[in-house]
From TrEMBL:
It is found in: Membrane. The lineage of its organism: Bacteria, Bacillati, Actinomycetota, Actinomycetes, Micromonosporales. The keyword Hydrolase applies. GO terms for molecular function: metalloendopeptidase activity. Residues 164-204 form the PDZ domain. This is Zinc metalloprotease. Belongs to the peptidase M50B family. The chain crosses the membrane at residues 99-123, 387-408. It is a multi-pass membrane protein. Its cofactor is Zn(2+). Keywords: Hydrolase, Membrane, Metalloprotease, Protease, Transmembrane, Transmembrane helix, Zinc. GO terms for cellular component: membrane. Residues 10-364 form the Peptidase M50 domain. GO terms for biological process: proteolysis.
Length: 416
């Protein structure tokens, strides 16, 4: 039930975000005097609507977005009634049209920034000092978590009958103990723990020094045997090695909370990092298409492949089901920021495409004026329709791929 609630809640959050996106267009257009005739949440048949002034507001039957109709977005639009010619959007200065067309993305950015600031003051933002690669993990103090068993090889699965019990647990070690030595060899971090274990004979009895609640102690236990590649060569040959049956407890907190003032700086840093990550993700989109296809045709789903609104909603449901509300909020922030950036790409029919054309017209008029040549006028959108259809086709295929992958082979962040 909590999973379904999380899915619906996240989908509702997306719908509200998109509705606010369209509201951003509408409000800025009205503020400049442009005529807005319709503002609807959803698509398809009208379920309910009312008219106030010159604008009809309402709800459509398919809750997959929203739209607002601004009269005369292009010179080729035939929706301008007699007497409204001066209110056609394309007749307004380019800076006003830029504000109107970018207001949707600005709304997404605003939602992401506000949500990030609130998160910074509550459950916290990702700690930049948290270990995120193998080298940083090995530098962590060797604080342990006792495992249920020692698996015989590198294949991960649940413990089964016949698997060796954890030697650390059998030796009386507890979760949160810090390993300080093995057979007299000092252990200063988790990397040294692994290195020393690899140098110890599998199956032999080892003397383990540890620290618990500030008190030092020692214990003896028979080490188990498992198969692992060399520490510095994950693709190297697998051999028998010693195992203590422990995992690492990272002492560095993953999230850090801030006060209201400090949260402003933390939010700025977080959003800046997200901007860089989003730009990199957009650059990698073409190379992810083969990975999506492999996921659809039975291959393993790469966690770094793009997800659709369906996949994001499923992850939101998982987050709620596992009481990971911080993940739910981070997904909401990331998705809003990505949508904001994506909509500004200079491609029709995206908002960024209209902005790019407006500034192209402005620059071309300036150049022609300097050359003392007649103004070439406005861009003919009809001539750009083939390119627009190509963008729509590519976007539609990509969306279909991501939705299919999210249905048949979804990304999951929690064990099921």
């Amino acid at each position: 039930m909590s999973f379904a609630f999380g899915v619906v809640l996240f989908a509702l959050g997306i719908l509200i975000s998109v509705s606010l996106h369209e509201a951003g267009h509408m409000l800025t257009a009205k503020a400049f005097g442009m005529k807005v005739t319709r503002y609807f949440v959803g698509f398809g048949p009208t379920l309910w609507s009312f008219k106030r002034g010159e604008t009809e507001y309402g709800i459509k039957g398919i809750p997959l977005g929203g739209f607002c109709k601004i009269v005369g977005m292009t010179p080729q639009d035939d929706d301008v009634e007699p007497g409204d010619e001066k209110r056609a959007m394309w007749r307004y200065p380019v800076w006003k049209r830029t504000i109107v067309m970018s207001a949707g993305s600005a709304t997404h950015f605003g939602l992401a920034i506000i949500a990030t600031w609130l998160a910074a003051m509550t459950f916290g933002l990702p700690n930049p000092d948290f270990p995120r690669n193998e080298e940083q993990i090995r530098a962590e103090p060797a604080v342990i978590a006792i495992q249920d068993c020692v698996l015989p090889d590198t294949t991960y699965r649940e413990c089964a009958a016949g698997d060796a019990p954890s030697p650390a647990g059998a030796g009386g070690l507890r979760n949160g103990d810090r390993i300080t030595s093995i057979n007299g060899t000092p252990i200063n971090n988790y990397g040294e723990l692994l290195t020393t274990l690899r140098a110890t004979t599998p199956g032999s009895t080892a003397t383990i020094g540890y620290e618990r609640d500030g008190q030092s102690g020692t214990t003896e236990t028979a080490l188990a045997t498992t198969k692992r590649p060399p520490i510095n060569d994950p693709n190297g040959p697998v051999t028998d090695v010693s195992a203590l049956g422990v995992g690492l407890v990272v002492s560095t907190p993953g999230l850090v909370s801030h006060g209201p003032v400090a949260a402003v700086g933390a939010t700025s840093t977080f959003i800046g990092d997200m901007a860089v990550a989003t730009a990199q993700a957009l650059q990698r989109l073409p190379e992810k298409i083969p990975a999506l296809w492999r996921a659809i045709t039975g291959g393993e789903r790469d966690i770094d492949t793009p997800i659709s609104v369906v996949g994001a909603s499923v992850l939101g449901g998982e987050a709620v089901a596992n009481d990971a509300w911080e993940l739910f909020v981070m997904l909401f922030i990331s998705l809003n920021f990505f949508i904001g950036v994506f909509n500004l790409l200079p491609l029709l029919p995206l908002d960024g495409g209209h902005i790019a054309i407006a500034w192209f017209e402005r620059a071309r008029s300036w150049v022609y004026a300097r050359l003392r040549r007649p103004d070439p006028g406005r861009v003919d959108y009809f001539k750009l329709m083939p390119f627009t259809y190509v963008v729509i086709l590519i976007g539609g295929v990509f969306t279909l791929l991501t939705i299919t992958a999210d249905v048949v082979n979804p990304i999951t962040l929690f064990p099921r």
